[in-house]
Automatic annotation (TrEMBL):
Highest taxon, organism lineage: Eukaryota
Annotated source species: Venturia inaequalis
Record flagged with keyword Ligase: no
SUPFAM superfamilies (UniProt xref): 3-carboxy-cis,cis-mucoante lactonizing enzyme
Any single Pfam family the record assigns to this protein: Lactonase
InterPro entries tied to this protein: Cycloisomerase_2, Lactonase_7-beta_prop, WD40/YVTN_repeat-like_dom_sf
Protein name according to UniProt: Isomerase YbhE
Family indicated by similarity: Belongs to the cycloisomerase 2 family.
Keyword tags: Signal
GO-annotated molecular function: 6-phosphogluconolactonase activity
């Protein structure tokens, strides 16, 4: 197994930093605001108004509003809550809206001057849009069911008997919302704007993933020179059931929609051995645009069988035409890294460890991409099934 040298990363890690706030969704019902001073994490505030099972956070940096999506496992449907942010980190609920379908798990903000809202993926097989003008004004605009799977997927006895959209992702053009559907082996493509009402999503032909792969999350990438254009766009798709990451070249046909051409595929473990119990989690491009990081859950690649058991984070260098070069695995800091996020500089990663019920911050070398030691850790939620779900930085 190729692994990073933690000592080498630690040697180049942190310089003195001013305190920064982070927000963490805990599946135990708590939304927490934390302060990180470069060495330790401390709790500023906790709030339980998001709902019984906070699962996803969206930080709208334009309006300085934090949106908290509640999966609502103990209620008929989920919900969304809005919190205006301030430098103090205090959590004050501004509004709360019940959704009309179960299992919301991810959201992405979209819109323009005429409409602003959020597309929400529901694991139960639905998509919703919520419109908002400000933190105190939210309204459910659209709720639609995805078409049932025919025939059933290869894992029909497990998780492929109905659609299971798992993420909402805005494309670089700002006109399309993508939703990887683990149940249907698709990436749903939806458009808003000139070809539809601004507040309504219209479905276009999807990306068809490998049967039985179970698409979970995706990330867009462009060479730096093409940013703010629709040229040379690539999509990296992480599949949970077969632990692969596939790269697609993206194009926009004149008659609408999106086209995807597969250019490469590799394991989320790179050249390391795939662990049969593992399932890919989050996938993100680093702030420097040079590396792709993927979390592997339930693999126990580090210190397996001990109290310090840890799943892994895999790092790949991104080359020309989105070619991936495996750089190594690093400890995620605990079990079930459901989500992670980079700070603005890219020298820290906040990892939400669901089964370990904690959030950790790891050192990271911005030059080599190597992920290092735990710099700070804090309990979040209750192990093994009500832990940390999602973390965002307020920078």
């Amino acid at each position: 197994m190729r692994t990073f040298s933690l000592a080498a990363v630690a040697a180049t890690a942190f310089q003195a930093v001013s305190a920064v706030n982070l927000y963490v969704a805990g599946y135990d019902g708590n939304l927490s605001s934390l302060s990180f001073d470069g060495k330790a994490l401390s709790v500023i505030s906790k709030d339980q108004n998001c709902g019984s099972n906070p699962t996803w956070l969206v930080h709208d940096k334009n309006t300085k509003i934090l949106y908290c999506i509640d999966e609502g496992n103990t209620t008929p449907n989920g919900s969304i809550a809005a919190y205006p942010l301030s430098p103090t980190g205090k959590l004050t609920l501004a509004s709360h809206v019940n959704l009309t379908a179960p299992g919301p798990v991810s959201g992405a903000i979209f819109g323009d001057k005429s409409f602003r809202g959020m597309a929400i993926a529901h694991y139960g097989g639905q998509v919703a849009t919520v419109g908002f003008q400000n933190a105190t004004s939210m309204k459910v605009i659209q709720q639609a069911n995805f078409t049932a799977i025919t025939p059933l997927g290869p894992d029909a006895a497990g998780r492929q008997y109905i659609p299971h959209p798992h993420q909402a992702l805005l494309d670089p053009s700002g006109k399309f919302i993508l939703m990887p559907d683990l149940g249907a082996d698709l990436v749903r493509v939806m458009c808003w704007g000139p070809t539809s009402n601004n507040d309504t999503l219209v479905e276009h032909p999807p990306l068809k993933a490998k049967q039985g792969s179970g698409p979970r999350h995706a990330a867009f990438w462009q060479p730096q020179a093409n940013h703010n254009t629709t040229e040379n766009i690539y999509l990296f798709l992480a599949a949970e059931l077969d632990n692969t990451v596939t790269a697609y070249k993206v194009s926009y046909p004149a008659n609408g929609g999106m086209d995807f051409k597969e250019v490469s595929k590799t394991s989320t473990f790179g050249t390391a051995t795939i662990v049969p119990t593992a399932g890919a989690g989050e996938i993100l491009v680093s702030p420097c645009n040079k590396f792709l990081v993927i979390s592997n859950r339930n693999d126990g690649s580090f210190n397996a069988g001990t109290d310090s058991a840890s799943d892994s984070l895999a790092t790949f260098a991104i080359g020309a035409d989105a070619a991936l070069t495996f750089k190594g695995l690093a400890p995620a800091g605990g079990k079930s890294p459901r989500h992670f996020s980079f700070n603005k500089a890219g020298d820290m990663i906040a990892v939400s460890l669901y089964a370990s019920a904690k959030m950790v911050i790891l050192a990271r070398d911005v030059v080599t991409g190597a992920i290092g030691n735990v710099v700070a850790s804090i309990p979040i939620g209750i192990a093994p099934d009500r832990g940390a779900m999602n973390t965002v930085w307020d920078e």
